[in-house]
């Protein structure tokens, strides 16, 4: 009974954290919608989004460090940067690029459909280029890595065992893919594969900053 109650609380907490992130992205969508219709209203939505980002970051940081202090058998934390780790991170970035290039080739050959959310994102960037780019490159990687890697592992797969590690990476990536498409489709597997690389990065380096950096590089490459 205690285990069920504890897991229920964790699921509830994760849903609330996810809802906060999604609500924040909705503010950006409203700002984009009114960018060419009502600049004043769009600016207010951007202001509300930035305030909410600051609040979410403080909340995420506090909860994450609180979780690690309570139970941290994998010794997640801050690992020093050195050339060996940086070279490994660059190789993982190359792996993410290879996945995207392979997927784009399948789309070019009409074997797979173009991701609908990518088309929507391109449209949003055209309407409100600066803030959509800032959000996609700088803000989203931090919030998504805290949510899908930091909290997810510590909430549901905190034990340092092969089973916990493998399933933690798999389910974290799958959830990451689903929330980028909001449906189960072949495109979900594309985003899930990127999520698996990011989750593996967090687990390998045991430092959330590495998966954030990898996510940042990937999103920056996408908008260049």
Automatic annotation (TrEMBL):
Keywords, alphabetical: Membrane, Transmembrane, Transmembrane helix
Report whether Transmembrane helix shows up as a keyword of the record.
yes
Q: Which residues cross the membrane?
A: 12-32, 44-65, 86-108, 128-151, 163-180, 186-205
Q: Name one GO molecular function term.
A: endopeptidase activity
Could you tell me which Pfam families the record lists for this protein? Answer: Rce1-like
CAAX prenyl protease 2/Lysostaphin resistance protein A-like domain: from which residue to which, for each copy? Answer: 128-220
- Per the record, the domain of life is Bacteria
BP GO terms, sorted: CAAX-box protein maturation
Q: Which family does it belong to?
A: Belongs to the UPF0177 family.
**Matching PANTHER family:** CAAX AMINO TERMINAL PROTEASE FAMILY PROTEIN, SLR1288 PROTEIN
Record-given protein name:
CAAX prenyl protease 2/Lysostaphin resistance protein A-like domain-containing protein
Species the sequence originates in: Secundilactobacillus silagincola
**Lineage start:** Bacteria, Bacillati, Bacillota, Bacilli, Lactobacillales
């Amino acid at each position: 009974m205690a285990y069920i109650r504890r897991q229920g609380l964790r699921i509830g907490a994760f849903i609330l954290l996810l809802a906060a992130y999604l609500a924040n992205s909705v503010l950006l969508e409203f700002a984009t919608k009114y960018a060419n219709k009502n600049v004043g209203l769009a600016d207010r939505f951007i202001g509300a989004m930035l305030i909410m980002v600051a609040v979410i970051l403080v909340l995420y940081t506090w909860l994450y460090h609180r979780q690690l202090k309570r139970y941290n058998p994998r010794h997640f934390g801050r690992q020093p940067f050195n050339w060996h780790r940086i070279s490994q991170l660059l190789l993982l970035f190359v792996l993410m690029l290879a996945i995207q290039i392979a997927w784009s080739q399948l789309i070019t050959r009409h074997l797979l459909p173009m991701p609908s959310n990518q088309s929507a994102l391109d449209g949003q960037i055209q309407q409100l280029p600066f803030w959509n780019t800032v959000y996609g490159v700088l803000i989203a990687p931090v919030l998504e890595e805290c949510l899908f890697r930091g909290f997810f592992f510590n909430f549901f797969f905190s034990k340092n065992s092969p089973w916990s590690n493998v399933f933690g990476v798999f389910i974290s990536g799958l959830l990451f893919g689903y929330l980028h498409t909001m449906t189960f489709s072949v495109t979900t597997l594309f985003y899930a594969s990127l999520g698996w690389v990011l989750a593996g990065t967090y687990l390998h380096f045991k430092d959330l900053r590495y998966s954030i950096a990898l996510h940042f590089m990937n999103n920056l490459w996408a908008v260049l």
